[in-house]
Amino acid sequence: MSTLPASLSDLATLANELGKTARRAGAAIMEIYHSDFAVETKDDKSPVTAADAAGEKIILADLLRLTPDVPVVAEESAAEGRIPDIGNGPFWLVDPLDGTKEFIKRNGEFTVNIGLIVDQRPLLGVVYAPALDTLYLGWGVGHCWREKDGLREEIACRIPGPDGVVVLASRSHATSEALQDYLKDTPVASVTNAGSSLKFCRVAEGDADLYPRFGPTCEWDTAAAHAVLLAAGGDVVQPDGAPFLYGKAPTFLNSFFIARGAA
């Protein structure tokens, strides 16, 4: 078991500080969102904008100040080959703008993600949707909050209703054969498409029950929202039920997964 550095011992304080960080990153992202921004393509063919770099710069500066001895794996830095040695200790996973395609479409479904990994599992997560001005904070188990319209309220996963589960699907994988096959024996009330890590958060706040993902993701895409879901009473597993773990250096590529609410 890893020992938490003193700077990580008070998770509530750290989560609140990083909530402020995510809001500042979100403000910088929104300035670009409302401008005539350019879209470039990275080596992996995924899109990137100036907003990704602007958000990451703010987050990295704050993490260096708050937890100087904890390595940070951040999407844009990793794309440029700057990947620290994470060893066996805690490390951060950062996606400054999850849902860049949604950002480009200007549909509001994009998020700022900051997640802490300890012993291959998410321990703390901050997810902020700047266009929706909605912040999710989660740490441990049973400590999960949503801030919206100036109000903070505790959130938790729900038990599925008698009509079946409400399923969330990625817009680009909603009709995949793998998804249809997975759901074939499950009573389904509805399937709704959504973007970015908001799908995890909607399960965490009890608006949906299941988010199966049979498409490619990286660890920084999922870590923060996974922590929020765990704190709300849910979990993320591989399709065969095996644990969904982190720290798969140097690629940090995820397997397929099932994000689920209360049993």
From TrEMBL:
It comes from the Bacteria. Gene3D superfamilies: 3.40.190.80, Fructose-1,6-Bisphosphatase, subunit A, domain 1. Pfam families: Inositol_P. It is a peripheral membrane protein. Keywords: Cell inner membrane, Cell membrane, Hydrolase, Magnesium, Membrane, Metal-binding. GO terms for biological process: 3'-phosphoadenosine 5'-phosphosulfate metabolic process; phosphatidylinositol phosphate biosynthetic process; sulfate assimilation. GO terms for cellular component: plasma membrane. Its cofactor is Mg(2+). Substrate binds at residues 75, 97-100, 221. Mg(2+) 1 binds at residues 75, 95, 97-98, 221. Its EC number is 3.1.3.7. Mg(2+) 2 binds at residues 95, 98, 221. InterPro entries: CysQ, CysQ/Inositol_MonoPase, Inositol_monoP_metal-BS, Inositol_monophosphatase-like, Inositol_monophosphatase_CS. It is found in: Cell inner membrane. GO terms for molecular function: 3'(2'),5'-bisphosphate nucleotidase activity; magnesium ion binding. It is an enzyme of class 3 (hydrolase). It catalyses: adenosine 3',5'-bisphosphate + H2O = AMP + phosphate. Its main location: membrane. PANTHER family: 3'(2'),5'-BISPHOSPHATE NUCLEOTIDASE 1. Belongs to the inositol monophosphatase superfamily. CysQ family. Converts adenosine-3',5'-bisphosphate (PAP) to AMP. This is 3'(2'),5'-bisphosphate nucleotidase CysQ.
